[in-house]
Amino acid sequence: MPQDHKTANTDAAAPGVPAALADLARGMAGAEPLRPPANPLAQDPELVQEFLIEAREHLSNIEALMIEIDNGGAAEEAVHGVFRSFHTIKGLAGFLDFAVIQEVAHEVETLLDRVRTSELNLNPERVDAVLHAGDYISSWLSHVESPASAAPAAHAALVSEIRRAAQAAAPVGGPGQPQASDTGEPAADGPGQASERASLGPRAESSAGRAEASAVKVATSKLEYLVDMVGELVIAQSMLEHNPDLAAARTPRLQRDVAQLGRVTAEVQKTAMAMRMVPVGQLFRRMSRLVRDLARKSGKQAGLEMHGEDVELDRTLVEQLGDPLVHMIRNSMDHGLELPAERKAAGKSETGRLLLKASHQAGQIVIEVSDDGRGLDRKRILDKAIARGLAPPGAALSDHEIYHLIFQPGFSTAERVTDVSGRGVGMDVVRKQVEKLRGRIDISSRQGLGSTFLLKLPLTLAIIEGLVVTAAGERYIVPIFAVREMLKPSPDSIFTVEGRGEMALVRERLIPVSRLTRKLGLDERGAGLSDGLMIVGESEGRDFCLLVDEMVGKQEVVIKSLGPTFSQVRGISGGAILGDGRVGLILDVGMLLAAGPARAA
Questions:
Q1: Cα atoms found within 13 Å of the Cα of residue 56, Cβ hemisphere only
Q2: How far is the C-alpha of 185 from the C-alpha of 74, rounded, in Å?
């Protein structure tokens, strides 16, 4: 079942789970820990693990619906959905004698019940109380899963906050309160809120309910092991198909059996990979809460639009993209969007616009993060880089080179350090994490109009389709999404341009040529440009020609990590076992072309 939180497997969580139960039975502030609950069910690690998974799913749903309500898109069914989620958490916590979680959920349930009966409206303070309760329960879940972590503070203050919020300080529809937030009559949308509401409302809840009805919960470790074994099956099938002994003994019946094995293996592989894929929308929806909290803290107004929530990508990618997106949203809110008065003076809407968009492009997933704020200040970034010695004085750098300076460790143009940004850590984390995922970042910006960051990532971290090529007798794999065409260059299409090196004329355009042998520091054996095969493609928005000796064929390969020893080798992203049993290195074309020629040892 899709999850918004990474959940450890049962075996890993089991040993420490009972140790946390005594703490969970703790009462109000200062109370002594009670004896571990006598209920034997509460000592069952599998039941506790099931509770962790289900409670986190409900908390994710709660946060999404509460953000929708806070953005003025409230509907009666959305309030009911939040109420039902807290009621379920309360029941499960009571079943396992998790007294603190049960009490907090009960208090929120009481507040929401008054909202459902139209005694109260969900104003921002009440939304805060509900969200704080969700955060508190989430912190307890993390403590149960990892008892070594510090236990959350006593919940007395939170209970008092919820109880105050449950008191009607003003009649329904009173001054300063949203109109009809619990009657199913939506308030007017602010800029960018209609799109967000479309993805977070009752439709999301109902679709989640349908998915739950047809889903089976499987431990993450078991799923990963299954995918690994399917990968081994694909390798074994490919090796069998290319076995010369089998080729010598081919009969019509044997050919049919081998072909059938290939079809079945391909289907199993396709299904196993689909099991790893989850919608990116669950990641996007977590950013809604971040935008809301940052806007309230900074005094800015911001609306978040989301598109492409149904686009699926590898579950591991979704988990590891969380931190980069958080840093980028915080950067846009702090540096990008202006205060309402500043935006109004510039002729803009007082409410800033943030966009999260996912789409497929050339065999990759593209995540777009953009805003309509002040944009990147080219001169300020360059001056700061020169002052820090990151660029020489008077350097004539392109926009692309200047904008990418913000990813340097410790780089920041902020005049003061705040709790949101200013230490120059965030964007460095973004770059490192995206590169770790074999992805790239492109930046475009216009002064006074905003900035756009494009994160280009592979669909999956497990399989890649590529061209198997040779260079100096060794085999390498070029990812096919980076390839536009292949050609055998003629002598009259090769040029040497002063200051630019070797160039090839391809469809009336001169494109720089990189020899794979030189990039990898291999023996060229005196080969000329016209003696090899030219791979023409695009990387980092730039055209390239990569000269290889010859092409062996096209193949879908299972990516294998090369381990920590070779993790820092530029231009190589992994390895794969080919059909004949030999190992081929997978090329990271963008990194390879950016690197200078390798030096022989």
A1: 21
A2: 7
pLDDT tens readout for residues 520-534? 888 776 556 667 888
| Bridge partners for 531 per DSSP | none
Give me the sign of the Cα torsion angle 300, 305, 310, 312.
negative
Angle 342-343-345 from CA coordinates, rounded to 5°: 65
Q: Which two tokens stand for residue 403?
A: 């904008």
Closest among 223, 227, 203, 323 to 2, alpha carbons compared: 223
Non-local (6+) Cβ contacts of 477 within 8 A are 464, 466, 467, 468, 469, 555, 557, 576, 584, 585, 586, 587
Beta strands (DSSP E) in 141-214 are none
Domain of residue 295 covers: 280-458
Q: What are the residue ranges in the chain where pLDDT is below 70?
A: 1-43, 73-75, 168-215, 362-363, 410, 412-426, 460-462, 499-500, 525-530, 539-542, 567-568, 595-601
CA angle 440, 517, 490 (to 5 degrees): 95
In a domain, 2, yes or no: no
Domain boundary among 430, 458, 486: 458
User: Both 311 and 434 in a single domain?
Assistant: yes
Q: Is 453 within 8 Å of 381 (Cβ atoms)? A: no
In 559-601, beta strands by DSSP E: 572-577, 583-587
Q: Which two tokens stand for residue 358?
A: 């996912």
- Identify whether residues 87 and 200 lie together within a single domain: yes
CB 72 within 8 Å of CB 193: yes
Buried b / exposed e over 435-452, threshold 16 CB at 10 Å, is: bebbbbbbbebeeeebbb
**Same structural domain, 284 and 420:** yes
- Give the pair of three-digit tokens for residue 555: 């193949």
Q: How many structural domains comprise the chain?
A: 4
